[in-house]
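Re-run with default settings, no changes from the original entry. Doing this only to confirm the output is reproducible before filing.
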Amino acid sequence: MGSPQAMAAQRSSAEHIPSVHQLKVGLEGVKPPVWRRLVVPSDITLGSLHDVIQVAFGWENMHLHAFEDRSGGRYAPPEDASVPVFDEEEAALVDVLPRTGDRMDYTYDFGDDWLHRIAVEAVHPAEEGDGERALCIGGRRAMPPAEDLGGVWGLAELLERYEDGERPIPTVVRHGGEEWAEYDSLRDEVLVGLYEEGFDPAAFDPAELTRELTQVPLRRAAGTRRKGCGEAGGRQAPPRTYRCECGSLHPLPGGAVPLTDGDGVGEQASLSDVLDESLSDLFDAADIRLPAVRLPGEAELARAVREGPAFMAAVRLGHWCGGERRARRASAEGRWRETGGRELTPKGLLRPKLARQAVEEAELWRIDPEEWGDPEGRAARLAKIRSAADMELVDLPWEWALSCGFVKVDANRAHAGDELPDQDDDAALLAAWQGAAAGAAIELSLNFPALDGPLGGVAPLRALTDEVPPLVFLMLLAAYGLPDGEWLNVADYFTGGLEGLPEGPARRLVSALLVDQYHDTAGTLELFGAAEREGHEPPLDASLTLLFDGGGPSTLPAGRFRLTPLGRSGLRALLVQVGVPAPVIGSLAQADARDLLTALASYPSETDAAAEVEGWLAARSTADAAVQVVDACDGTEPADALRRLQAPRVLAAVLEADRTGRVKAVLRKAAVSQVTGCAHAAASMLRRIGEPAEGQAPWGLEWMLVDGALPFAKAGEQALRERLLAGPEDGKRPLDQVAERADDLWRAGHPHAGEVLGALADAVKPLDKALAKRLRKAAFKAGSAA
């Protein structure tokens, strides 16, 4: 291992995009787990990270500390160390933990031995305003004052006494005319303080901790190269892109292509890398808008999770690994400590005897009850197995328990992991399932699994796949929006998605890659109760078969596919996590008006939309509702215009429910407010009911016609034409309203009038050339007026 100076000397002097590290820092040995998710600049010193951790866990910096990486390197203030260490102020976080998945330990107070595990969850480019202060974006459970309590055992005793409601009785001391209370121990003093402050062990507020962290100055390591996202070991991975219908290349979610070292060890991006803002970019680039869907309640979804044998086997295995406890003498401190877990072989597998126990005691046989359900036959078969590696019933739950954090390995023992959910806690169980099963399926659907193996080194193949949209992921979104009970025809979907890719060997190879990707993704979802499949089962390793055997026609996945309600809920939870709007019918009663208006456009029926509006109005007064809806109509961009299109239906319901007349007063005031969007929406509504406000701006109706066409003009000529022709057979369509006012639309003063009028002219030309000419003339006037 080199020194921090040597590591810095090996770096290029080229300027790089500043980056931030997302870290999960957990306090070991505490149950329930206590952890913090922190975002810090990549180039801070480890000494500065020490300051951040101190605040994050409520420490007072009264004792010595040290960091230790996985190769045994120790970092601490040299003046405090009794053994040789690297100076923590000369070591940058990005040098010691350069990539996603890297880990190290941080120990505070060598008497109490507070051990913190630090894991890198993601490395991202710093956005504007990021990287100046540490942030907390998640965590679990509060930390009481714990200095000098005796380590995790003392903390556990304190919390147990607090939970039991034990009240220490003080001794009253009188001396020199003064009187005060003294307690038998520091723990008693802390316990009394917890009652006084109303301490809630389950409470934790990331925003409050972030406010505290803003007071922590950060120190940067001298000469540190501020790495960009996707860099690892001095190499920068090329971005993956896909070509969408607009003809341009867009970045594929997940950023960098997985790299492979010379020793074959892949640097696969983690789920937190995949599910970041680039996923939102994909939605914007492909103009994807998810429809509102119906979802069962939490209890029903949790019940579906419990019915999934594979996932629950991983959960039970985690609890089984944490089920064995025994005490041992800690010679250094002279205290009794608790240890436990299950013993592993040098290869990191359960010892055969323990693996057989796990099959029975954790009921792993429930994964395949037809094959393993008979107790006598199962016992006889297990007795013949001499290696856990040959025990197929253990393989899958063991792999998933490790990857999900349900099991953690420390030295040669397996313990219950920090992410292990309580089997009786619906919310915790559902959240764990969403992060594990649904998350893994999304990750598979965004990366060709075959490229992580022998095919990964074929550069032309990577270039070819960069031209292909993420069809399997887009298939999941298509299945998400299907009405309940309907199926997706898989072959038809992929055939349409590959239009434009020329016939030949390249197309056949892409088809084979899609076969493998679909099989892996759909199989994972099906295994965990998130999807159903019918029809042709895709062959395994289709891409390798085609590559080495050659020939054959283009082969695409076949059969039918659909998400279960559980699968839909899991996909939605992960999309919402990265800021993708995914409305649920009946869930917006407490939402703000902007969210309501944004969601209504995606509702599958007017009945559902009306019911949602009714529920939203029931949670507030009519006057407040009117103010909120009008305020939500501001802005001049296409998304704002799309939101304003839904305002009339909500305001009509508000007016119908109003018994005070205050709603009309709100609209009149807003109509003359000169606030772009808000004033126009209010004025338009007053015209609808035949009561325009005195002093309303002229050309308001023309403004709203231009505004209503804006989002469809952005979507393309065909979408705009369909919008113009929509409407009642015996009433005015948007096309008719545009024709009536075509010569005056430019007078509205809408900031997008020129481009919208030009788009309208193109859209109506096949329908009415004279009207197209009038609109083209109006577009010219709008441009001149601007």
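The radius of gyration is 31 Å. The chain is about 45% helix and 15% strand.
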